[in-house]
Protein 1
Amino acid sequence: MAGTINKEVCGYPLSIFFIVVNEFCERFSYYGMRAVLVLYFKYFLRWDDDLATSIYHTFVALCYLTPILGAIVADSWLGKFKTIIYLSIVYAIGQVAMAVSAIHDITDTDRDGTPDNMTFHVVLSMVGLFLIALGTGGIKPCVAAFGGDQFSDHQDRQRRTFFSVFYLCINGGSLLSTIITPILRAQDCGIHSQQKCYSLAFGVPAALMLVALVVFIVGSGMYYKAEPQGNIMLDVCKCIGFAIKNRYRHRSNQYPKRQHWMDWAEEKYDKLLIAQIKMVLKVLFLYIPLPMFWTLFDQKGSRWTLQATTMNGYFGSLVIQPDQMQTVNPILILTLVPIMDSVIYPLINKCGLNFTPLKRMTVGMLLAAIAFVCAALVQIEIDVSRKQLLYLFISSSHFYFFFLNLIFRKHCPPSHQHPRTDDITSKPQEGNNAIRFVNGMKTAVNVSIPAANFGLIEPFSYSNYSLIKNGKVTFTLWSGSQSCEYSTDFGFGSSYTFFIPSTLVFGPNCQESITAAEDIKPNSVHMALQIPQYFFITAGEVMFSVTGLEFSYSQAPSNMKAVLQAGWLFTVAIGNFIVLIVAELAKLPKQWAEYVLFASLLVAVCFIFSIMAYFYTYIDPAEIEAQFKKNVNEDDEDNKHKLQKTEVEMNKRDSIKCHDEDDKDKQTKM
Ligand SMILES: CC(C)C[C@H](NC(=O)[C@@H](N)CC(C)C)C(=O)O
């Protein structure tokens, strides 16, 4: 750091307190909004699953592409401080737009609880999401780099700790918000009619973003603010372009080779700029294999969550929903980061091993590959258990329906016999349970639960299947004015046919009379089996991501810190695209095989990365820059010296000339 920090607490600049609190609130805002976004698309905007998923992923990808924009603006034009302020305002406006777009009362003219002008809500939410992507992505590389800027050159250890705490704040904020916003969404709210409260679920993240902005501004007087050094990115592009052109012009063997191809820019560009570009290119080259890590990492939210839907989420009396398993990642981050920093790394150091940042990142990649091997093993276990269940289902249901048909034939005239058409033969999606009723009575029966209505079931007929969530459910059966209740508990992913016997007596309770046939057993493989894979991927993340964040800062030249952070985040965006490409191209019939494929790809990439890392030499950009500046100053001194010498010589020559001329004059006079 070039400036001086006035206030320090325990050897840390006080200003970083505002930066980490800002990051905590911003991540709360981002992840909180993201947690309910797909549901908002589906249930508020009434989009189908495909459209909701594509827009969601497009938004996430955009959030990792915009950092480039923010970094260029910060490093070349506004500086990090102003860029963070301006883009945070854009971000907060986006969040407010989302919250407003989710108020159904605004267009609910007929007051039936549904918006009447959907275009208004769609347009406002899309504008909101675009502003959020611009804001969150734009400030992301700046906040991390700005935090790093607050430390002096000799505060390497403190800066490393800062990046760990920074990562803890990311995960603390995201953990809290992914727990809180779904609860807020589940509340009912509205002026004219009550609906699920998406406006509150978006409103609280919007408020947190405003808090983030205010906290950041409050710290204003304490920050070290590095001045932007002109349009650096344009200079970089021009310099690289010139080096390539010049190299091409001098391709013939008659010209002596230069140490580095960038040295071909020396004719026109400053040596310092060339050295800085070399530093950035070296790091960017090293980044090439990194997206593969994110390809595996980001499947937590997709493939792993889908895997959890085929598992049993009962942890004693606590029921964990499949998507809630994702919170294991931030929880583990909060425990693993301090353990790594205060126990594991010092222990490795004590053993005399030099566990360099690039070695840590390599180990991080291997851990992620191990996580996917664990996921494959769990998948095999699920597949085996499903095969057994299906076998059970086929054998038991054959016997069962043979029995039912006998009853039907006995009680029901052929015109009343309704054929069974849509038997479920595979597990219901998303951990739901598929339920249907068979009415063995001579009168029609109506069956309902708060979440679904099976409709009027004619005598000797079947209802359609209804999908219901896990937990205790109470069915109400009606026949004319008589009713009774039947309760039962459901697990995850089962299918049941409930048989209403002809002898059913309506009363307060018909618990004993109804018989249940378990067509498909509930998921038997426990969700806890996913914990090892979460553990390995998170340990990998700590070694890879926390280290990578700090590495990207420490190896970047002073005028391109944010740009290199953006390069780091760009690897996340590419990783997300690879998921789509590989999953599309590979189209493996078995999910476990896809997991093994991803694990193998990462091991291969990790091998390449370790070779690249072996040839990388760590640098201290500040030292190199200082050296160049010193050389320039020395050159300046030399030049000054030479100039003075020349002046003296010229004066001497002039005086000689004058003497000569004087002599000549004298001679002519004589
Ligand atoms: C790509 C990452 C650097 C993004 C980072 N994510 C995390 O720290 C995750 N462990 C959070 C979890 C809730 C998915 C971030 O900055 O958000």
Protein 2
Amino acid sequence: MSEIKENPLKVVDVSTIDQTTADAILDGFATQGFLFVDGHDFTQEEVDHFFDISKDYFTQPHSEKIKYAIDVDDCGYTTYNQENLNHETQIKGDPKEAFNFGKFNFLTGDCKKEMLPPVFAPGTENYEFIKKMSLKLHALGSRILNLLALGLQIDEDQGGVNWFSDRHRADAPSMTSMRMLHYPSASKLDAEQAIRAGAHTDYGSLTLLFQKKGEEGLELYEPYREQWKTVPYIESTSSEYNKQGKAAPIVVNIADQLSFWTNQVLKSTLHRVVLPTDGDRYSIVFFFDANDDTLLVPIPSKIVREAGEKGVGKGIGLNEDGSYINAKDYSLKRFKETYATGH
Ligand SMILES: O=C(O)CCC(=O)C(=O)O
Ligand SMILES: [Fe+2]
């Protein structure tokens, strides 16, 4: 019998938007900064297909992949050791490769086309599938943001439940990206490479993550216990969802911008990916960012104001001159620090 890993995270069913669900979401994000979302509308077939496409892509020769290397818009391929998520402790970059889709138009699902290799190019079934997945991820991310707005009791006269989604509009540009990741097995790495992705926080608003059964390795840091905890792969406990062929619950975490924006009521938790004894890991991540020009000024919510009055989060998310930073500039700043080669 395989070992059953304890799940340290809340599982929240987001199929209904109501106060109870909103409070559960807020609680998970205000304590651990991570939770599992169930009651989404991804099928297991879709998620399996997504991973099949990803594997086919990474199986190509290196010479093919680097033809579409990452560009100034953060679209394209990044190779092994190119990205270093923790400069303080890691000398070499992360032993992983990735492909980023970016510059999305979420009215249509289109992304920047120039950086797409033939396997993903417009006109292919893959391109249409990726469009569909990015629209569904945008919709799920927006739903979670609406629940968060309800949980935070954002002032009605300021937009209430729609406050966040008005700043993650489908028709306005953002740094949102969708990323396929591949971490090769330990046997292919140098012995000193013990970490797959260095400890870091994410840059945007929310991160949504698909992982595969048997390929765990993601860990989050619990500061109050000074402990790293495994984020396991879990199945839905709803027999109804399983009967309907729904995919397993999706990992969702708060990133820096939402934390700044809420005087740190929402926690942007440190996380990393560790190396098991063997086996590859594939993950697919949606980094959901606010529209480019959104200023990260504390949001109009009683809960956030009260945290601010206690001095929580004071001085974070500011430019050097003390003005509030906008969503795009913050992400760009973090990208610059992350890429060992700089771009
Ligand atoms: O692959 C994973 O599970 C997580 C990757 C991650 O945290 C990131 O790319 O920001
Ligand atoms: Fe991350």
